[in-house]
Amino acid sequence: MTTQAVDAPRPRRLTLGLDRLWPVWHRFALAAILALAAFLDLYRLGRNGYANAYYSAAVRSMLESWHNFFFVSFDPGGLVSVDKPPLALWVEAASAKLFGYSGFSILLPEALAGVAAVGLLYLVVARPFGRVAGLVAALALAVSPVSVAVNRDNNPDALFALLLVASVYVGMRAVESGRLATLLLAAVLVGLAFNTKMLAALLVVPGLTLAYLFFAKLSWRRRLVQLAVAGAVLVVVSGAWITAVELTPAADRPYVGSTDDNSALSLALGYNGLGRVTGQEGGTSFGGGGGLGGAFSGTPGVLRLLNDALGDQGGWLLVLALVGGLSATLAAIRLRSRTRLSALVAIGGWFAASAAIFSLSSGIIHTYYLSAMAPATSALVGIGVVSLAADARSRTRMVLPIAALVGSAWLELDLLRRSDYLPWLQGLVVAGAVVGVAGVVVAVTRPDDPRRARLGVTAIAFATSTLLAA
Q: What is the DSSP letter of 300?
């Protein structure tokens, strides 16, 4: 796409006028979605106790001294640190200091981060694609099984996901404005994500880089220079804590856990980095060597995200996200909308990088890692549903919404049968798919009839609701 592409006015056929129906009520809808997310993430949170005792013990030790706090010491004596960078544990320790050490105070920051990610994802999607798309994306993330699970735990993944969403939001604003300061803020947020879960923070970098490189309204030279400066800021922020650890004499700090050489850099690049991709070695690996991903997430391969380990965590809406994302991309190309194309590159790049890493890595890939991919999947679902509703008015494009609904229903039925959970949900999913497909067929018979168009939109909305309910 050339840099001369310009945005056309937002067309009625892409949103079908739905945005105008909610000039005020969309705020109530967003409030309801945030309330649902808060309920799912916070209700009876204390029943989870101290969740992951490994990190809870570290928080307790970190309250003993600033030394333990800074180096995220696992034990009160400051002998060994945990296997993660400090940011999430710093936040949990601050909560425990403020509210007293308890399971609830440790879990609270992650739960609140989960709710915040839902609200921020709405902004990510609504700005370029409209409020309806934003609401659907937010709802999809609010009910995402893997997201709800990590939001109720004290692993760093909920805060990590929030920082990824924030970096994409700010990065997209940087593409729109071409301002270096905004781009640098996005780099800082990615750096903070690095200090939450290390090398996994780079999942959003390819998409943001390509979006800025091809769509920022600047000369090629300025784009390259600003990306280089942002890269330098990212390295500085990401490496700040690691540098502090490396410069501290080994006798004056805890041993860096899960490493063989007492190096925080080794922890970042090895155990929490390339070791997860190529096969874990050293650290706390179970016997060393590669292929350990299969112990948690099944055999690496292109269909791994749909297997028995990962499918019921993050696979529910993959078909809808893929087909919907394709529909939205084709629509943005037809309209020559650089704003939407840049957003799709940023979000799609995040989705593609995550899918590739989690599908093909032979190292340790836990099922809850999919929470880092869930916001991107949910964003594509929100964007895609609105675009597919527009396709339902075209005989040449009707195949896309039909394929999305049938494929999504088939996948969800398979996942429901595997778990044998609430069998009546299978009937609901089938009913939603049938109604959705029928609505599309009826709508395209007379695409100029507003009543037929509304029927098609209503049918797709009902089908999407059943998919989210399951």
A: -
